[in-house]
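Question:
Now give any protein.
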Amino acid sequence: MIFWNRFILILIISIISYLIGCINTSLAITKILKIGNDIRSVGSGNAGFTNVLRTMGKKMAIFTFIGDFLKGILAVWITSMIVTSSQAFQNNENLILSAKYISGMMCVIGHIYPCFFKFKGGKGVLTTWATMFLIDWQIAVVLITVFLITLWISKIVSLASIMAAISYPVSTFVICFFGDYLVTKNLYDMFFPTIVSLIVGALVIYKHKSNILRLLNGKEIKISVHKK
């Protein structure tokens, strides 16, 4: 009975987190305010922060950043409230953490493949960072640090995003190994978060496939902002 209660709760959490992720800030704002064309039809065609910054300016980019970041926090926060107050989870820290990781993953999937916008969304970078701030801030700090260092050196946002995505499962494994496994000796504490981070990292990298081709051909665009 407890197993089924947990399964149903995880299913509910997954659906809620996915739907929250589907609320794409850049698409929602441009449609509500009727600002220009669909963001997916201009610039790189990506409904994310970088394309908004390049094609619609700083103001719209800031709104996009805040929205995409907050929805990741919201999804994990709601999940945390549900599982910590549920008898089915019985204050089991491992299960609660797993639920948060699943919530974060589903929110990112919703951002990348939003059902509200014909499954054409952003690349999930900001939303991934946001979910990790509530799940494990140390991992979030590593991801952002890798991103900023790569961006500072290369001036290429896509390369910085890809490097951060690559570092996601690596940093998760290292931090969970030293922070959890060595204390509890429970392999689950290390492998479940690593597997989820590997899936999310792979999705983010996959969404950058066109950027990777341009990087290999030396044609990727460096940071530039056009005022609107």
